[in-house]
Design a protein that fits this description.
60s Ribosomal Protein L30, Chain: A, Alpha/beta knot, 5-stranded mixed beta sheet, 12 helices
Length: 275
């Protein structure tokens, strides 16, 4: 067994009550255990954990395979100084505990931050993405990664959209969900679209709708402040949202393809409309 540094607790039992935060729980279940302002989420992998900490998120505990103790030695030492528990266990124990194979060997239970108000995020923003009812966590994470890479200032998620702090969303985003300011916009679309317009945004629905303009046309004369609304997999945006938006915009397709995956479409649009 790898030598365990001071401040680290070795665990052999996957049912150890001290590890209850990691025991066969989805992030939705974790959030429901406490009020959102006091809930937790799971960060997986060294890169994601470091990005969460860099964003000012507070760790509740750490859990990792022995080989990661050296790579995360600085975090382990800081956790020990701060009185934050650090647990280590072999991979079979980790898998039995969490219910999934821990490819990157390190987890952190992080205190879930309080979400800012919509108006707070819009003050200095010029490009905003709105995710309407995107329920696939992989797509949510991919959209955040594109948003971070391509200059989107903020992301708003509707009430039925998947949680950006769900473990898979965070992992797919490579931790960029901590870089791009985001919050939930509620109600939506009625009320939400109006609040964006009142803040000076042109609301563009990415949809195959009658009368839509092409992405090239919009990019040729872009509004100063733009909120781009991306829809759920399959059905796309609701008719109410398309009707409420200032315009609909489409990405021209070739090869008999009628649409792109929401994450791919978002990346194309973010790049074309970047400022």
């Amino acid at each position: 067994m790898t030598a365990i540094p001071p401040g680290v607790t070795w665990v052999d039992d996957p049912h150890d009550p001290r590890l209850a935060d990691y025991l066969q729980l989805t992030d939705v279940a974790l959030r429901r255990r406490m009020e959102p302002s006091r809930g937790i989420y799971l960060a997986e992998s060294e890169k994601v954990i470091r990005r969460a900490l860099a964003a000012g998120h507070r760790p509740v505990s750490f859990l990792m395979a022995p080989r990661w103790l050296a790579d995360l030695a600085d975090l382990v030492a800081q956790a020990s100084r701060d009185g934050i528990p650090v647990y280590a266990a072999d991979h079979p124990v980790l898998e039995a505990l969490t219910g999934f194979h821990l490819h990157r060997g390190a987890l952190a239970a992080m205190a879930r931050p309080v979400l800012p108000a919509v108006g707070e995020l819009l003050v200095d923003a010029r490009r905003v993405a709105v995710l309407e009812d995107v329920v696939d966590h992989t797509n949510v994470g991919a959209v955040f990664r594109s948003a971070a890479a391509l200059g989107v200032d903020a992301v708003l998620v509707t009430p039925q959209c998947a949680d950006p702090l769900y473990r898979r969303s965070v992992r797919v985003s490579m931790g960029t969900v901590f870089q791009v300011p985001w919050t939930r916009i509620d109600p939506w679309p009625r009320g939400g679209v109006e609040s964006l317009r009142a803040a000076g945004f042109t609301v563009a629905a990415l949809a195959l709708a009658e009368g839509s303009v092409t992405l090239e046309e919009l990019a040729a004369a872009p509004p100063q402040r733009l909120a781009l609304v991306l829809g759920a997999e399959g059905d796309g945006l609701s008719r109410q949202t398309v009707a409420a938006a200032d315009l609909a915009v489409r990405i021209p397709m070739a090869g008999g393809v009628d649409s792109l995956n929401v994450a791919a479409a978002g990346a194309v649009a973010f790049w074309a409309l970047r400022v």
